[in-house]
Amino acid sequence: MHLHEFMARMHQVVKPQNYLEVGVQHGTSLKLATTAARAVGIDPAPLHIARDNQVIYKMTSDDYFDAASDAGGHALIDLGFIDGLHHYEQALRDFLNMERYVHEKSIIVFDDILPRNQEEATREQNTSDWTGDVWKVTHMLLKYRPELRIREVDTSPTGTLVVWGFLTGKPGYVPRSMDRFVKEYMNLTEVPQATLDRNYAIDPEAVLADIEEFLA
């Protein structure tokens, strides 16, 4: 199943009223949020013009969440999608920022967590298809956030990660200051073979069924 088909199905299952997306580009995934009363996209240089229920903020995600905090908070997020800068520490920071505004039924999805080869997973983009080192987020969350449901999903072209089961009102294991965790994984440059082979990736239909049961 392709990423965009999976996300379209995710919208059908979750039926989010408040959708938040980091990384808009051409707006392909933002356009899938047809059920949302408000679909917010964040991108410093989007190639898509907002329409219908969409609002696009032309800024970095860090600036967006800082502004939201200064304004007193953000609407609770039903479904979040992280597909911005392909560095694991930024993807993790986007996750932690989104997590400040989740409820017990919220779902957060990461793109590009299953690179197909080592070249796609470099810190700097050297190939047309590039995931960066977002794959590290899976390992970090599995280690430090065992209370969450964390599922690698076998989508094409480069996999997704779905996270749910947030215990709202309780602090996560990863603090807002991430220096220790960033340093821990910075020197890890080789993608494990199990990740390249998708040994732990789950069929998209099975994940969608699990989420539907969770939300029932």
Kindly describe this structure:
The chain has a 7-stranded mixed beta sheet with strand order 3-2-1-4-5-7-6, with helices on both faces. It has helices at residues 3-14, 61-70, 88-99, 136-144, 179-186, 193-196, 204-215, and strands spanning 18-22, 38-42, 54-57, 77-82, 102-111, 149-153, 160-164. The chain is built from 7 helices and 7 strands. Helix 1 (3-14) packs parallel to helix 7 (204-215). The chain has a single domain (3-215), classed as Vaccinia Virus protein VP39 (Rossmann fold). The radius of gyration is 16 Å and the shape is globular. Helices cover 31% and strands 19% of the residues.
> In which range does the helix fraction lie?
25-40%
**Category by helix and strand content:** alpha/beta
CATH level-1 class: Alpha Beta
**Strand order across the largest sheet:** 3-2-1-4-5-7-6
Mean pLDDT: 92
Large-scale geometry: globular
Strand content: 15-25%
CATH superfamily (homologous) name? Vaccinia Virus protein VP39
Task: Give the CATH topology.
Answer: Rossmann fold
Q: Please give the radius of gyration in angstroms.
A: 16 Å
- Measure the end-to-end span: 24 Å
Major sheet characteristics: 7 strands, mixed
| Unreliably modeled segments | none
Question: Which H/E pattern describes the elements?
Answer: HEEEHEHEHEEHHH
